[in-house]
Each structure stands twice: as C-alpha cells, then as structure tokens.
Amino acid sequence: MTDNVAIHAQGLHKRFGDLEVLKSVDLTVRSGEVVVIMGPSGSGKTTLLRCLNLLEEPDAGSITVRGRTVDCSGPRQGRGRRRLIRDIRVRTAMVFQQFNLFPHMTALQNVIEGPIHVRRLPRSYAIEVGERLLARVGLSDKRDEHPARLSGGQKQRVAIARALAMEPEVILFDEPTSALDPELRAEVLQAIKNLAAHGMTMVIVTHEIAFAREVANRVVFMDKGYILEEQSPSVFFSDPANTRIRSFLRLMS
Ligand code: ADP
Fold first, then answer.
1. What's the rounded Cα separation, in Å, for the pair 203 and 183?
2. Ligand 1: distance of its center to the CA of 27 in Å?
3. pTM, whole model, 2 decimals?
4. How far is the CA of 96 from the centre of ligand 1 (A)?
5. Is the ipTM of this complex over 0.95?
6. Could you read off the pLDDT of 187-204 as tens digits, one per residue?
7. Distance from C-alpha of 51 to C-alpha of 92, rounded to nearest angstrom
8. Distance CA 111, CA 94 (A)
9. How far apart are alpha carbons 96 and 222 in whole angstroms?
10. How far is the CA of 116 from the centre of ligand 1 (A)?
C-alpha cells in the first residue's frame, strides 16, 4: 500500500442480528481526498462510517489508518488492541447528523474537551487552538455560548471545529446537513468546502447532489450493503452506468 493512504478498509462485514448490513466492503481513501458516499436509505452508509472509526466493530475485515491495522476477523482481546482502536478513533473524527455537542458546555469548552482530556494538551494551548478553530468556522463571537443558544448550522460548525481540534487523519461526516433547515445548510456546506480547499481528507455521507458534484474527488454508491460503484463526480452524476444509480438520482432530483 502506498504512503499516501489515509484510511483503508478491507473486506468489512457487519451484521445486526439476522440483518447483514455490510457485505464485504472495501474502501481506500487517500490523503487529501474527499469521498462522498451516496445510496438509498438503509444501504449501510452510516454503518460503514461508524465501522471506519470503530465506533462499531465490524464482524470481519480490517481497518488501516496511516499504516496501522486493526484486524476484526481475529481475536479481540488485548491491551495493545484496545489502545490501537482508541488511537484510530482519535485519528478518524466523526461529525454527526445531530451534532452531539455536550449541552452543558460552551462552544469553546466543546472544542477543547478532546484536546485536553484525550490528546493531553495543556489547557492554555488547547484554548488558543480552540479559539483559532472557532474563528475558522466563523464563530468567534459564539465562543461562550451554550449549544441551546446556537442555531443548527452554528452547532454543526462547532462540531466541525471540535473534529478539527483532534487533528485527525480524516473527518467522517454522517449526513451533516440533513437535520438542518434549507437556509442553514449552506453555511455548513461552505465550512466543509473550506476544509476541502485546505486539503483535509474527508468521507462524507450526504444527499446534497450539487455539493457532492462540487467537492467530491470520488463518489461511492452503496446499495444493500455493497459498494456498487465508485466514480468521479462528473461521470457519476452525468453518465452513471448502473440503472440503480440512475433511478436513485432521478428520485433525488
Ligand atoms: P443508511 O445510513 O444507508 O441509511 P444504516 O447503516 O443506517 O443505513 O443502516 C443499515 C441497516 O442497518 C438498516 O436496516 C438499519 O435499520 C440497520 N441498523 C443500523 N444500525 C443498527 C443497530 N445498531 N442495530 C440494529 N440494526 C441497525
């Protein structure tokens, strides 16, 4: 595998009871790449993201982040393995549909929590970095507000700053705008576009076609637990070979 691979998943399987949700999924994301995952509801997109950062452990397969591999097919014990899983979680930050901010903390406290308690950075340095990141997502003036006093778009931008504060290898976005009113979506999409312009590696589950066309280097289409196709956005949106993709895009537009 070449050096510039940020994250590599091989042969991922995941089932919930009798339901096989991922059926041998392979995905490689290179550093600086923006990969958009699309597909019908229930096709396994969220489960794939959660497996990539080991929030869910796959039943089989392996995840490699920056050359370090967790094998999910073998034995699951051991302190070394637990440490590796923790490390991969830190390096693959997740931004959720429902923001998942700590409600009792201010915007800044949400951003510096991980750097202080997980990365063990000195508080003063974490605050300096946190303030810079809030400025980067246009929220310097909301530094001391609690989530309840922020709009959905502002909450999601805090969540993006919080993800960045972990200095992850890759950020995984799970439908980051689907809980937002249309007028608030643009500000979050713009924040993500800015990250792309700065070379951040990202995997984004989204139904936002215009955004995907603009920001994606590659579009991955999932259906029934499989990756059915991977294409450049220009081919994916204009001339998809697969009839499943054609009908999906027709429904979405
Ligand atoms: P998508 O993101 O494409 O909508 P998901 O990955 O959320 O799909 O879900 C795929 C399937 O797995 C769905 O049928 C869903 O109900 C099921 N599923 C997801 N998470 C769980 C869980 N924790 N327990 C049981 N079933 C789940």
1. 23
2. 19
3. 0.95
4. 15
5. yes
6. 999 999 999 999 999 999
7. 11
8. 13
9. 19
10. 33
